[in-house]
User: What shape does this take?
Amino acid sequence: MRLVVRAAQATGATELIDIGAAHVDSCLYHGEATLDFVRRLVDGRARVAVPTTLNVGALDLLHPELYRGDPRVAERGRLLMDRYRSLGARPTFTCAPYQLADARPALGEQVAWGESNAIAFCNSVLGARTNRYGDFIDVAAAVTGRVPNAGLHRTEARRATLVLRLASDVPPALRDADELFPVLGIVLGRRAGSAVAAIDGAPPGQSEDRLKALGAAAASAGSVAMFHLVGSTPEAPSLDAALQHRPPLRVEMIHLADLRAARDELTTAAGDRLRAVSLGTPHASLGELERYAVMLGGRQVHPDVELLVSTGRDTLAAAAERGIRERLREAGAELLVDTCSYIAPILRPGEGAVMTDSAKWAYYAPGNVGAEVVLGSTAECIRSAVAGRVLRDDALWGAA
Amino acid sequence: MITGTALVLDEPLSLWGGVDPASGLIIDVHHPQRGAAIGGRVLVMPSGRGSSSSASVLAEAVRAGTAPAAILIGEADLILAIGSAVAEELYGVRVPVVVKPLDRLARIRDGMVLQIGPRGGVRRASA
Assistant: This one.
């Protein structure tokens, strides 16, 4: 409770409100400090007061043999995951709790979520209300069932103050292409910082998977906790609704050159040498797993390439029931749950680039796991995995 | 009173994925100050960024002795404030996270020696 009160002071709130659920990110091991903290909770016999899901941890508990790092670190990571489970949290170990039908908060529901992509999705796509709760405060909120009544818990803070408009030189085909959304997210994060922005100019009714990619990138490149995509997110049926019927503070254009620059920046590797392809950051949905299987179409992954697909353990179970897991495995894909390949040493060492369709993966992997990265569309990633070399088509991005 | 040399960041930094708490070095390849050491410095940045795991990384950096002496920031950041509070609770070391208007932060030059008082007052240490 002391931490929740401290949070209230830091946010200027004068009262606390009840939450209906929590998503806790603190179960990922970052060193002994993370274990020192949870030990206090366990010693004090703390239990979560609201339904609580857990974010990814340091290793895949279902396939621990995939971990290639220091076994002592793996053990500490496993211990931390166990400790959080012992507080009464549900061992979902996914960064995409919004894909679990029974863990999706309702429109307008007050919750406390950690994990930057989940926070952005929760506010923007579900229309449930959370602030950017980081480690420690997420579990403090889960244990007390309360948070300060501040920021995005309040309607007025959810208003877009910045309008980002796709300029006329962004071609129609790109506006409705999968590969737009991660790159647009990087531009959104850079331009918005922590402000709530409304993006105008994409066709309405964009899918949750695309919005997931957009939010994850924005929350990596900036500290975006909420965005509106006019015509696609629930609090933005129109631009005027996203603005809560007031004028914006700023209106900026996003030109094709801005998108191209963001896309180029995320590719750190040169040449077409390929050692791995990583899909499923944030965790792949059931629909995405099925798409990968369809795109593979019975072809085999090239023997020199590792195709790694990250997803949640519950989604993997659903995929197994429908035969999707086996189709992916038969094609040579490796399936990873409970963690992700840019936070843990999972990838096979080797020469060449790692290709991904995730701007978040591309953003963090060079620093975290030392990978040289090529960003491509999902289809390009799959094609490259089969061909054994980097294949990218720049036509959509207006390259001559 | 905390004294440290300013490290003025040209862009916001996510501590998680941005700093290795074992060494205190900036590892974000997209950050203009990649390779800089934050240990013992007064970190000056316009805002926080990125991962919600940054609170853990700050606490771990305090434990490992690689944390900055203080953080001066242009807008309130709950993630850093909580990381600092937990580190103080666990290890008795205070890394103040002080919010100052951007125009005040803009007057701080890299390498200036700063003093941060117990109530968050910031001044230049006399040479």
Remarks:
- Chain B has three helices and eight strands.
- The first helix of chain B runs from residue 54 to 64.
